[in-house]
Amino acid sequence: MEKLAAQIIESLREAVVVTDRDRRVVLQNRAARELGVDVAWLVRETKVAHEGVTEVQAADSMGTPRRLAVERSTDGELGIFVIRDVTVGRGFDANAMHDLNNLLGALVSVTSVLRLELPVGGRVSELAAEVQSIVDRAAALVRRALVAARKDREGVRPFDVGAVVREMEPLLRRLVGARVALTVACDEHTGTVVADRVRLEHVVLNLVANARDAMPGGGAIAVSTAAMSPDGSATYAAIRVADTGVGMSADARDHLFEPYFTTKPVGEGNGLGLPSARRFAFDCGGTLSVESEPSHGTTVVLYLPRAE
After folding, report:
1. Structural domains of the chain sorted by starting position, each given as residue range(s) with its CATH number in brackets
2. According to the model, what pLDDT value does residue 169 have?
3. What residues contact residue 41 under an 8 Å CB cut-off, 6+ apart?
4. Most exposed: 69, 86, 256, 261, by fewest CB within 10 Å?
5. How many CB atoms lie within 10 A of CB 273?
6. Residue 15: strand pairing partners
7. Given this model, what pLDDT does residue 39 score?
8. Residue 261's pLDDT band (boundaries 50, 70, 90)?
């Protein structure tokens, strides 16, 4: 499996560099070798944040200034650097980048489902997690390049909420499995929102996965969309995910939106699903509500402001 992982990294179009604890390069893929920049110097000397993306300036072998987005993550004592050239005007094709962003969004969704279907802790599951991490980073770098070229605003576009959820139905059915009865009902008047579609799809996948995990013995999940109001004032495009699972205690509800809090067994959840969903709602100018009682299931409603 290590050989397969190395082959996958070698084939990636993104430049990937792995360093030891002293930032000495122990592995670099073909894209890194062909980048035209001294990557050993780049990862050793530049002030790359401990985690996250940092933009740096560097000269290539011809002395031409280059602008690079460098993302660093860690795995034990290893440092993993993903480097993308975001120099404006350097072979930039906005239409192609938008197409690539959409393809990466689909890969994010598929790898999320793959990870949920694999046994926790196995080597294949770990490899799938690494693939998803690389795809996530690639998608983030593509969006960053689009923003840098002033051609995109973090993937934000108008789209019909009901139509998007309907398109997700086959994927959701594979996600919940045979023991869970899934119903999907989308009102044609749910409305259009201006948001990042990829983020929305990821939120819906997480909410449905949470609902499924709350019913280890099987049950029912209802996903629906409609034009609704959380407080009787403005009308929002709402996505509702309701399950017949175990529900939550008052104490669990008090901690729902704390990062890394989870009611799942150790190793079976990262506790980021609901916090991420609420953050997405807030970023869109909307809100998120959760209703749950022990033995009476859980209902989550995501409210997004409709476009005028």
Report:
1. 2-148 (3.40.1840.10), 156-305 (3.30.565.10)
2. 93
3. none
4. 261
5. 21
6. 83
7. 82
8. very low
